[in-house]
Each structure stands twice: as C-alpha cells, then as structure tokens.
Amino acid sequence: MARAEGILRLLLVDDSLTEADSIISILRSAGHAVRAARQDSLAEIEKALTNQSWDMIICRDSLAAVPPRELLNLVSRRGRDIPCIILASDQGNIDSLYDIGAQDVVKFSDSRHLQFAVERELQNLFGRRLCRRNERALRESEKRSRLLLDSSQDAVAYMHEGMHIYVNNSYLTLFGYDEAEDIDGLPILDMITVDDHAKFKSIFRQFSEQTDAKPKNVSVQCVRADGSGFRANIEFSHAVVEGENCTQVVVRDEDVHTSTDTSQLQLLRDYDLLTGLYSRTRFLDELEKIVGNVGEGKGDAQLLYIVIDDFQAIKEKIGLGASDMVQKSIAEVLRKELVAGELLARYSDQAFTVVILSEDDSYVDGRAETFRKVVDDYVSQVNGETIELECSIGISRVTESLSSTSAVLDNADRACVQAQRAGGNTVERYHSSKTKKLRSDTDDATVWRSRIEDAIQNDGFSLYYQPIVSLHGEEQELYDVLLRLKDDEDLPTIKADKFIKYAEQSEWMNDIDNWVIEHALISLKAHRQKYPKTRFFIRLSQHALSKAEFIDWLCSLLNNHGLDGAALVFEISETVALDNLDLAKSTITKLKNIGSEFALEHFGSGLDFSQSLSELDVDYLKINGTFVENMAKDPENQAAVKAIIEMTKEAGKRSIAEFVSDANSLALLWRLGVDYAQGYYIHEPSDKLNYNFEGDDL
Question: Which of 86, 193, 528, 620 is most buried when burial is the number of CB atoms within 10 A of its CB?
Fold first, then answer.
C-alpha cells in the first residue's frame, strides 16, 4: 500500500503484551510496517492522542479499564480523524458493539478480517488526508491569486518567453491601454525605451536561466501607449499559470509614491475602525493559517464564538451611535482578559471571536467562562441608562478532520446557538455525532492461491538479485535473493510482497522455500566459479523454522553443489522470529553450526527493539526499509534509524539499511555509520548477477 508516511502508526489498547505482539505480527504479515505503542488506561490514551499522530487504533473489548464506548467518545472529543477497530473476544459481543462509532468490529481470532479492515480504513484515511491537504493548498492558491490580481494596486502581468499572456487593470491603466486584447501577445520590450533594451535583456536573461532564482528587480524607462515615458521599477518572479511555467512581472512607477497609501489601506483592511481589534478579514486570514497548521499536525487550537445576547433589542433601545459605544466598551473588556498567544477579533456587529492555541478542553472551557463572566459583570452606562450585558459562547475545536475555516466557524456558531436556546449567558461546546462507515476493495485470495499453485507446478517463479554494498563494514560480495512470480510480456514479473501472504496461508509455502533455495544454489555455484567470494542472503518463512528435517535437507543440497554453509546468510522477519522464538533460536543455532550466518529482516517493526537483540544470536540486522525510505524528509525516521544503528553497534552486530532510494538518504546513512546498504539508488534488482563490487566506491 502506497502512502507518504510509509509507517503504520498504531495505538494498541490492550493489557496483554503477548496479544499486542500478535496483532502486530498479523499486520506485518499483511505488508504493513508497524510502529506501535500499547496503552491500557484512558489517561495514558488521552496523553498519547495529544502528543503524537496516529493512523489507527485497535482496541480489545475485554479491557475493563477502557470500555470501547468511552475510548471512541474520547477520540471524538479530541477531534482526531483516527479510524478505530474493536477486537471482540467472542461472537456474542459483536452485535452490541456495532452502534458505538467504530469503523469495524472484528472477532479476535479472525486475522483475515482484521487485515482486510485495517487495509480498507488506512486507504480511506490517507485519501481523506490527501483531500484535506489539496483543499487547503487550493484555497491558499486561489486566495493569493485573488489578492494579487483583483485587489492589487500594483501593475501586474504574466509573460511567457517575453510575451504578455495576462495583465490586470492596474497594468493597463499604467501603460495607457483600454483593453487587455490591446496588449495580449505584445513583447514587453515594446514597452521599454530602446536605450534600456540591453540592460533589461541582460537581467531578464540571468533571471530566466535560474529556475529557482529569487525575484529580481530592474529600473528602466518605460513607454506608454501614447508615446509618453516614465521611470519604472520592474520585478520578475517565477510563476505557473494553468500548468505552464511563466514569469510574473510587477511594474511600479518610481515617480508615484504609494507606500503611505498602501500602509493605510493595509491598516484599514486588518483592523476594525470602531474597536481597534482584528477585522473579520484579518481574522479569517489568521484562522486559515491555524487550520492549515493543525491539519499538518503542528499543534491544536480552539475557537470561541462570542455573541452579545439580545443585542438587536439593545440597539433599538439606545440607538445606533450609543450601541457602537457599547461594542467598543465590550471589545476593551475582552481585550484586557487576553493572555499571550490568544487572538481576538470583531467578527460582526454583535459577535467577537477568540482563538486559543490549546488542546486542553478544561483549560479552554475555563477561558470561555472567564470571557463570559467579564461581560456579565460589566455594566454599561449610556445616555443615563444602565445596560446590563450578557453573552453566549460557542466553542469549536480546530481539528485535522476540519479542512476549512468555514467548517470551524459553523461548528462554533452551532454551539453558540445551543447556548442561546438554553437561555443565553452560558457556554456550549460543539460535539459531533457523525461516524463514517467506509468500504474499499481487497485482493482475491482464491485467485492468488490458484496462481501460486500453477507457478509451483509449471516453473512459474524466477529469482532476482540485489547487491548489498559496504559503507563501513568489511568488504564482501553479497546479494539479496528476491522471489518473483512470472506474469506476461507487459509485466514480466510480480514482486513477492503482492502474493507471499497468500502463499504463507496455504500448503504451498514449503514448496516455495525449497524452490528458492534449490535454484539459488544452482545460480550461486555457477557464479562462484568466477567470483568465489560471492554469498547469498536467502529468506526463510515461518514454515521452514518448523521443519525438523530442514537442516539435514540443506546440508545434503549444499554437498550436491559443492558449497558449504558459509556461502549463505539466512534471514527471517523480526516479527516471525519473535512469534516463534524457540523454533527461531533452534534454527539459528543449527545454521551457525554448519557455517551459515543469520539476519533479522525488517528490524524495528516490533514494540521493543531490544528484545530481538537479547533473545536471538544473529549476525546482521536489516533495518526496516520504511524507516530508511523517507528518512531524508522525516526526522522521526532518522531518529529511529540512528537508534537502531547505535544499538546494533553496542551489541556487536552488523547493520544493513534496506530501501535506499536517493543520494540524501545514502549520505545520511554514511554519517550515521551503517555497515551495509541496499536499494534502487545503489542498484535495482536484476535477474543477472552483474554488480561490480570491485568498482564500488561507496
């Protein structure tokens, strides 16, 4: 499953470490790279929801300290868009759990249903996240364009290869043209005096050749449509219009000084004249930024929507002018109660808004009550009359599931209406009862099993090889052996991660293990005639661990090909090894006795990194590739990789980084001291053993 994060960040609500590890193993076998945490109390879960981002919650229904209904209510109150799956102990409990808001209810023993539900809900979750990011980006883009082109007093144009493709009204006015058609397609050089052509072209050429250049300025003499001239400062910057790269041009007449007027206009736009608070326009700008930050996981916020009760009646009683004075007084009262970091604005005639950057509901409720009380305590004297004021306050959380400012405002307004319907002079918080039930497709296991059976019977598999190169480890000629399923001419092979989970659930896995080892040894024997130092990494399945005759069969096969055990490094998934700990220990010992080495694949997938090192006598640790794949852009992944490398060195093991896909990641791994690396950036898997280890300068 493709997703930007690469890691399934899983919050397990369970009081059993063994059962939590079992769930992780089930999801890992379905192809997920799991980074999990386990909690068994509501207080710790609330702390986890506050401090970290999660992709999925899986909850046992048998945990008395955390009833599923209370857990789901907590997630809803926090405004988190996190799908929750409940694992039911028996079939009899399932019916009672359907209506409490979970995305699915799965019997604990039904691992296939769990894998299906997790895959479905993750696809939907990442789709929602992408949609919210796109909506925010689109709104921001539209807003910038609107402000620039519709409201700007600057003369703005867009050019492609020196020709005008768009101009705004200010641009037409500055150059003395009546219609945009008069200037469409006109070269900008036609609007500059001949004496300044060379100067203009030199600067414009330098700017155009640097696609990432910052805006540049040039001062030249311009020519209007009537032939008159004026001195202008022209600013270039790169832009994209309708998917095509172009240049944005801003022209300012140097003889017209508008800085004072511009600053005055900005003040009028940003601040309310009556109260001196932020205006509605400026407030919406700030709220848009806050919504975007929250959506990107940069903290939480909450909105207070404060409406003066019965203000229309007050206005009719004391008149328009006096009511303005009342609003000004209320604004001052509210301003005095602000604390650092809070944002206050006048939203409308009788409404004020406050944004509080906090995820703590009790704290925000207290702040709302402070604002309500200060208005209630304030007594206004107008024209000899005493005006007693009250207000209703609605609170809405700004959450990652809300992609627009209008949604946040609507929720706060609904809560405020509830407060007014309750008699006014009170505070209400918005609560959503909405639950989502979504569906997605899954692979057909029956079809895959049929294809696997056909491949075994008709030689439908092939082997690919990917080099493992040294960064800080001893120089070796190592290849990782990769299984492929032959397909057709358009798609010659299918990677194992597409079908291996179905093979593991069938009787065919033993046959696949045997096929891989037999054909790998044939290839290795032929290759070692010219390159005698070559060694293969070969994966073992859980089935191989449980075969009593496996080691004897392997020794016989090695003898038949004139090879010894030292030519092979066997590897197995960390989660499979931990789930079958005694079998894994026994197999590792037997393989070491015949000279082979052993590696743990996908290291870092479990709950506790150190358990694998303390329990299993392995030689190599292959760092979970999903940590490595995005590490150049993800500080969290970098920290995980660094911790694993340091732990590996302390244990006297050798580390291998999988999925190295770019130069930045390779450079980071070098600095962090990883021993070996493999990935598409180094060399793609190939059906040929053709990597030049002697020419490797990594």
Answer: 86
